[in-house]
């Protein structure tokens, strides 16, 4: 059974080269005639972890959006002349110049290849706002808008802006392979670029660490140390705890959740612990329940957590309870309860996830066209409870159990 959670299924990674030195990078960027014949390498501008997105709206009001890929020709001297018309974006010129004209490649990361065309992401958010006065946030936002406006497509109906990855995640039609692929690529780009921001200095000796292999790793510049570091992945177990006898599951509420939202239990894996052990320990810690059999369901890259964790890996399980009295710890979890299959099915149908997706798409269009967003996000008002949307592995676990025959989960693995 295919399990393609959102952020998985990135089409560029299967074609990714395992090693890429500076010579290979130059070749990919500039010299490969076959690549140039296909329009050259594609580059995705990113600002503060937000990819550049192009959006348009049909006369019927349907919003269409996609990642706003650029050809290399948009950078270099052409980029310089278009930006120099603006007022605030001198530093953005510097980013593009250093990366692609002076061949510094500090903020350029290689994402992979598809149909022999290489794809990269470039980070514009290293621009300093230290001397910009008190309102650094407003200055940064203006800078992001200025840079985005440089990339505005020639077609007047299309607008572009840097869009938060969580908004893209909610806006993605999970039934659409192309939409999911776009979000997976954007997630990979954000994860890599945010990791580079976190890993600028050697964790062993504190000397500056330099990116190598087109951003696939970093190495300490101290010749005595040369400590290597690789993109960070933080592993999390997420589990649906099942009472097989009574045909019910545990859902919990964290205090940071929006009202009425319930989800699976989850927790970080300790060093030296197996996945199954982490599932059992976290379940015992959070709700005081003992777990016997643990069955793997699927996993999900999660590049939308805190920026200090550039990419979490959510590993999803069904966990069969052997004790049944819930004792909530009150710290990590605010509440946890057993829910019957009927109540979980109702929660899944109460919420109009399609409307949430359309509201997020409209938000993207409004940001791209500099219109004031009508509302931040769609919120279901009428349901007594709901579970996370189809973009989350929690939803996949809950829906798989709710829609499966009671005994069928065991036989699928
Ligand atoms: Zn070092």
Task: Provide tags for this entry.
413 residues; alpha+beta; Nucleoside Triphosphate Pyrophosphohydrolase; 7-stranded mixed β-sheet; hydrolase; metal-binding
Structure write-up:
The chain is of the alpha+beta class. It has two domains: 186 residues, no CATH class; 144 residues, Nucleoside Triphosphate Pyrophosphohydrolase, CATH 3.90.79.10. The chain contains twelve helices and 16 strands. Strands 1, 2, 3, 4, 5, 6 and 7 form a seven-stranded mixed sheet that branches. Strands 11, 12, 13, 14, 15 and 16 form a six-stranded mixed sheet that branches. A hairpin with a 4-residue loop joins strand 8 and strand 9. The longest helix is centred in the middle third of the chain and has 22 residues. The protein binds zinc ion. Zinc ion binds next to loops. It catalyses: a 5'-end NAD(+)-phospho-ribonucleoside in mRNA + H2O = a 5'-end phospho-adenosine-phospho-ribonucleoside in mRNA + beta-nicotinamide D-ribonucleotide + 2 H(+).
Please render the helix and strand layout as text.
Layout lengths: L21 H10 L1 H5 L4 E6 L2 E8 L5 E5 L2 E2 L4 H8 L6 H12 L6 E7 L2 E7 L12 H15 L8 E4 L2 H7 L5 H22 L10 E4 L4 E4 L7 E2 L4 E10 L4 E6 L11 E4 L6 H13 L3 E12 L9 E10 L13 E6 H10 L2 H16 L24 H10 L5 H4 L2
Parallel strand pairs: 1-6, 11-15
Antiparallel strand pairs: 1-2, 1-4, 2-3, 2-7, 5-6, 8-9, 9-10, 11-12, 11-13, 12-16, 14-15
Helix pairs in contact: 3-4, 6-10, 9-11
Pfam families: NUDIX (PF00293), NUDIX-like (PF09296)
EC number: 3.6.1.22
Organism: Riccia fluitans
């Amino acid at each position: 059974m295919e399990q393609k959670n959102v952020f998985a299924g990135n089409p560029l990674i299967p074609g990714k080269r395992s090693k890429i030195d500076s010579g290979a990078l130059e070749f990919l960027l500039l010299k490969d005639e076959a690549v140039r014949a296909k329009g050259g390498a594609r580059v995705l501008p990113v600002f503060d972890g937000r990819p550049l997105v192009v959006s348009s709206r049909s006369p019927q009001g349907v919003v269409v959006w996609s990642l706003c890929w650029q050809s290399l020709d948009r950078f270099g001297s052409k980029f310089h002349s278009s930006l120099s018309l603006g007022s605030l974006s001198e530093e953005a010129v510097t980013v593009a110049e250093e990366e692609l004209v002076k061949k510094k490649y500090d903020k350029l990361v290689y994402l992979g290849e598809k149909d022999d065309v290489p794809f990269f992401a470039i980070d514009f958010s290293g621009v300093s706002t230290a001397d910009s006065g008190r309102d650094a946030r407003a200055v940064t936002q203006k800078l992001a808008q200025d840079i985005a406006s440089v990339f505005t497509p020639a077609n007047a109906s299309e607008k572009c802006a840097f869009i938060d990855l969580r908004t893209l995640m909610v806006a993605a039609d999970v039934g659409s392979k192309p939409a999911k692929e776009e979000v997976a690529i954007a997630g990979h780009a954000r994860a890599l670029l945010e990791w580079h921001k976190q890993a600028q200095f050697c964790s062993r000796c504190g000397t500056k660490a330099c990116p190598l292999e087109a951003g696939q790793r970093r190495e300490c510049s101290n010749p005595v140390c040369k400590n290597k570091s690789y993109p960070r992945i933080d592993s999390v177990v997420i589990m649906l705890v099942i009472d097989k006898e009574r045909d019910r599951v545990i859902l919990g509420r964290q205090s940071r959740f929006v009202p009425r939202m319930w989800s699976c239990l989850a927790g970080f894996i300790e060093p030296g612990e197996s996945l199954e052990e982490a599932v059992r320990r976290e379940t015992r810690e959070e709700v005081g329940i003992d777990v016997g059999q643990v069955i793997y369901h699927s996993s999900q890259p999660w590049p939308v957590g805190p920026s200090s964790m550039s990419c979490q890996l959510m590993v999803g399980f069904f966990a069969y309870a052997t004790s049944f009295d819930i004792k909530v710890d009150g710290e990590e979890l605010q509440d946890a309860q057993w829910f019957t299959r009927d109540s979980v099915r109702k929660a899944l149908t109460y919420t109009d996830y399609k409307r949430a997706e359309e509201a997020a798409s409209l938000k993207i269009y409004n940001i791209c066209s500099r219109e004031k967003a009508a509302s931040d996000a769609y919120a279901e008002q009428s349901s007594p409870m709901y579970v996370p949307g189809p973009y989350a592995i929690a939803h996949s676990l809950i829906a798989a159990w709710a829609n499966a025959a009671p005994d069928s989960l065991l036989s699928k693995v």
